[in-house]
Amino acid sequence: MKDQGRFFLKDSVRKTVDFSRTDQYLGVDAPPVQKPFPEGAAVTALPDPGGLGFISLEGAIRSRESRRSYSREPLSLNEISFLLWATQGLRGVPEQGHALRTVPSAGCRHALETYLAVFRVTGLDEGLYRYLPVDHELVLLKKPEGLETETARAALGQRFTGRSAVTFIWTAIPYRMEWRYGDAAYKVIALDAGHVCQNLYLACEAIGAGTCAIAAYDQEKADRLAGVDGEEEFVIYMAPVGKRITT
Fold it and tell me: For residue 100, what is the DSSP state?
C-alpha cells in the first residue's frame, strides 16, 4: 500500500494537462468566483483592511514560526479584515469568471473558499462564518453549541485549534480548477493552499498574532464542521489564529 501511494503521487504530479478535453476549451462558462449564500443570512461588512500590519517584509519572514499558544485577547474586526484581505482579498472587480487576488493561483482560478470558526472577535458573535471576497464581507452560517470542542475534534484532538481567537478553515471547490486543468487540477489546488497559508503567517506576524498550519484533520468531521458535502467541496487546510502571549 505504501508503494502504491508513492507511485500514485508520482504519476499524478507528473500528469500533463490535456487542454483539448477541458470545459474551458469546450466553451463551458467559467464557474463563479464566489459561492452564493442563503437568502436572508446575516452579513457583516468588513472595514477597510488598510492601516494595519506595518512591519518590514524581512521582519515578518524572520519572525515567522508556527505558534500553538495564544492569549485570551480577542482579535478586532479590523484585524480579521486585514487577515482575510491578505489571504483571499480581491485586487479588482471580478470579470469573465476570474478575479485578481492578493495571492497567486494557477490560471487565476482560485478554487478555495474561506470559513472562520469565530471564538473571540470583537463585533462578531461566536459562530461559523464564510468570507465573501467579492464584497469583503462575512456571512454567518451557524451558531453551533460547543464550537470550540467540535473544531478541536475535527483537528484530530489538537485542542489549540479551539483555543484561538479564530480558526481559518479553507475548502476547495475542485471544479473551479478542473474547468481549466482537468485531471491535473488537484496538484495546483494544493499549491494554492500553500500560497494562502503563507500569507496568513506573514500577516499574523504583522499584527502581533500567531498561527499554525494544520493538514492533520479528520476529513469527515472537518467537512461537517464547515457544512460542505465532501465531494463538490471539501476541507483542505486549517489554521488557528490568536494574539501572541507576551511575557
Answer: -
Residue 116 phi, psi (nearest 5): -125, 125
CA dihedral for 134, 217, 166, 78, sign (positive or negative): negative
> 209 in helix, strand or coil?
strand
- Do the beta carbons of residue 51 and residue 83 sit within 8 Å? no
Q: For the chain (length 247 residues), average pLDDT per consecutive 10?
A: 48 67 90 90 95 88 95 97 97 82 93 98 97 96 96 97 98 95 90 97 96 97 97 98 89
Work out the number of other CB atoms within 10 angstroms of the CB of residue 60: 16
Contact 185, 178 (CB under 8 A): yes
Please answer whether residues 223 and 229 qualify as being in contact, where contact means their C-beta atoms are separated by less than 8 angstroms. Answer: yes
Is-above-0.85 flag for pTM? yes
What residue ranges define each of the domains in the chain, with the CATH number in brackets?
A: 18-243 (3.40.109.10)
